[in-house]
Structure of Ion transport protein:
Amino acid sequence: MSLQEDDGQEAPRSLAPWRSVLHEVIFEADTPAGKGFDVLLIVSILASVAAVMLDSMGAVRLQYGRLLYVVEWFFTLLFTVEYGLRLLCVGRPWKYAVSFYGLVDLLAIIPTYLSLVLPGTQYLVVIRILRILRIFRILKLVPYLGEAHLLMQALRASGRKIAVFLYTVLTLVVLFGSLMYVIESETHGFTSIPRSIYWTIVTLTTVGYGDISPQTGLGQALASMVMILGYGIIAVPTGIVTVEMSQTFRRKVSTQACPECSAEGHDDDACHCKYCGAKL
Amino acid sequence: MSLQEDDGQEAPRSLAPWRSVLHEVIFEADTPAGKGFDVLLIVSILASVAAVMLDSMGAVRLQYGRLLYVVEWFFTLLFTVEYGLRLLCVGRPWKYAVSFYGLVDLLAIIPTYLSLVLPGTQYLVVIRILRILRIFRILKLVPYLGEAHLLMQALRASGRKIAVFLYTVLTLVVLFGSLMYVIESETHGFTSIPRSIYWTIVTLTTVGYGDISPQTGLGQALASMVMILGYGIIAVPTGIVTVEMSQTFRRKVSTQACPECSAEGHDDDACHCKYCGAKL
Amino acid sequence: MSLQEDDGQEAPRSLAPWRSVLHEVIFEADTPAGKGFDVLLIVSILASVAAVMLDSMGAVRLQYGRLLYVVEWFFTLLFTVEYGLRLLCVGRPWKYAVSFYGLVDLLAIIPTYLSLVLPGTQYLVVIRILRILRIFRILKLVPYLGEAHLLMQALRASGRKIAVFLYTVLTLVVLFGSLMYVIESETHGFTSIPRSIYWTIVTLTTVGYGDISPQTGLGQALASMVMILGYGIIAVPTGIVTVEMSQTFRRKVSTQACPECSAEGHDDDACHCKYCGAKL
Amino acid sequence: MSLQEDDGQEAPRSLAPWRSVLHEVIFEADTPAGKGFDVLLIVSILASVAAVMLDSMGAVRLQYGRLLYVVEWFFTLLFTVEYGLRLLCVGRPWKYAVSFYGLVDLLAIIPTYLSLVLPGTQYLVVIRILRILRIFRILKLVPYLGEAHLLMQALRASGRKIAVFLYTVLTLVVLFGSLMYVIESETHGFTSIPRSIYWTIVTLTTVGYGDISPQTGLGQALASMVMILGYGIIAVPTGIVTVEMSQTFRRKVSTQACPECSAEGHDDDACHCKYCGAKL
């Protein structure tokens, strides 16, 4: 998923002039109007998220519930209009709608409407904070985007190893969880295998709430094993990611493709294709 | 222990034709019948594990206990027949029986029979999920197997260092545990040395249930030391594994020098010098 | 922020002789008088911090409260006089006043005066322990300062990546927190979104107090996800810092080639080629 | 501190023959008698530690207390005699007495005698397990000793950096602890600054017992900061140790000194001194 915003807005050629202007204001941040719009947007997002958080606090809701309800609907309608305008002025509306930002923009208004049917879901509008990712573009935080890109690249490169690690952890967790269920039995809080698995995850990840904890000697011995295991195997993902990062951060691979054989993956300092020898 | 399935089935030369066919269906995943069998197997495994988990939940067992009991025995008998057939159609039954998958296949059916003697042990059939490791072979997840192999290699290479580390941790844990037992005494929950050692493991691994915690000032001071120690020495296994992985994963750079320009540092798969284009 | 003390005291040229002497005693540690002053200062700081800590313990305050109150004011007045003298004898008082040590020196006396208006704030004088950083200079612990400098350099170099990581963690924490608030509702201790976010931080960082913990199955499943996430992504800052450190600390290998045998890889301090013995 | 046993026993030249024989049996593991003695010693140590652990368990002590008391004294007297013999047959008794193993041998018998004066201290005899370190020598686990040596070397090389890190952590812990004491006040369990510091350590190291936890909003916000800080800065010691290990494990520095200028620290493949150019 790309964090760069290219939601189909790069090609509004055949648009009517008023749509072109609207596009520039909403999607670009180069003109004063565009910048102003973006800043206003971020302020609105922060205000609406703050309102939702305040609304969730019992004492505040009791006193200002009415006001916060109005504020919430005000921002939701505002964002709905904005979403409509975005769809309207973009060159390829569908491409925007299914892009990362398009989906977040949609998800940011759904919960309030949904709360008419399912009370309580309005709190999910906090997903709006994802919209603030645009801040990177507005504040010209491009170097940060670059770093984020590097990090993602390192994580993606180590994806398979991490998948194998996760699979191993999940298998261990199911096995140990069931074993603890048999050993500790239901009278000590291990009331079912799923709950025992929950306990095993709490223990293996070294979180350790203490809402469930082993009472028998055998259970405590097994728990000790799980703890030392969890304490030790944290080294595995750390090692994977560190090695991958050290390779990603160091090795600069050129994005150049060979003009002859189209092979990619050449080093940054290569002058000739390493496969066919053609000049790059 | 190898995750690749070569449980003696690679040489069924002198088998009767029907055993050959059976072998292909059960052990291979190349033919449609073989693939179908594997998929069916995985579904059965997941269903039987789900049944056991449901059975462990009090409310569910109360209502569907009878049904789940039948389901469990159905799958156990099914897997027993399957295990028999595997033994029958494999070239060298004994080699299969003592292989990793052979043992898991056996362990996956024993608990249900055992539960006739020792009630409660039927929950251990969750070990069946280990059978799903075959999924890697079926879904052609060979690259994942390769990654798993690499990880294991790195861990094995650092085995001795980790053993030394574990030995040190266990020694520390016994010493600190006994010290805490003397300091906090039995009135504060440290009722015996083994229990104090359990507490020390809980603390050193930064799990921290809080079911036992020091009450005296001296005990809290010592506990603080154990925490900072545990917080710090996690760096040791992490360092060991990271260094070992970085050596195991190291991108293979050829030691070949270009015959024309003597440049070095070519990738392993390069056919031409990346600087002058000469054939390597 | 530099830990080296160059608070403007390097240029007391045009000062009256008595101020010069005072400057040497207070700011330098080369003369016996200067060294004695510094040692006295550290003892005073430790004594005053100890007094505050003792004062915070109910039983001790009950018995020695009067005495500790006197001690506190004694040290505060002492440090106030010292602060005045420092301002007086330094060449550029303003530069000292806004330097790291100048600010700490000021903050170290404010809380006692503030406690006349806001009772309780006198405990904040523990900030005095920051003054002890001077110990590095006095005890000639320059190599330690060098190491501290190296560490800071590595952290600063990875600043952007860590900022991206922190931003991601904070976003995740807000999203998961709100989700848990909706799932668990107020009856299970998740009384507001901010409190849910607090719980999410407690869980993601694997602290796990257990003062709030999920009760519903869905909540526990989501909590498990947060735990495994927190357990896994610790690898990201660790990887970042490790890679950055390995680049900062890298043993300095000279890029010089031997003029005789063209061998490379000589240490930075080598004068002769380690292979043929020729002068570099 | 060296784990290799060279407690002065390497030079028993001028000893009487019976002392020579005794020395061989007790200190060496090459002869059958010496090996037998060592195995017997380890069994005795394990038995005595097990006895102490059993004695600490209330139910066991109630029933077998008398027996365990006798067992404890039997082993203590045995080890006392052994300690005496070691002193007797070693070439330089004083050097042995102050060596690592000599001190452990002494500490392993003191607690039982001490318990006559201070009841309860007999549990400290678990320090006897340190005597089992000899196992490395007996079982010819020299490669493990080598690994242990490498690990220690890496830790020692990073000693200064870790000291700086520890100093920073301790300063942070005192500052945050005092701040929390002022914010949460005594009614929420933060009854004194030392106790608040204890809580801060519990939180920063991500142990999180939950015996004390912040109740106010401001306290929870500050606690969140401490948690994220603790979650993040674990990267620092990990990075330090990893980098140091990668250098210690890789770089093989020859122990050769230059015959001309006595300089040391030459690389393994060096043929000439890098300082004066003389042939090594």
Summary: Chain A touches chain B through 59 residues (CB under 8 Å). The domain at 17-140 of chain A is CATH 1.20.120 (Four Helix Bundle (Hemerythrin (Met), subunit A)). The mean pLDDT of chain A is 81. The longest helix of chain A spans residues 58-89.
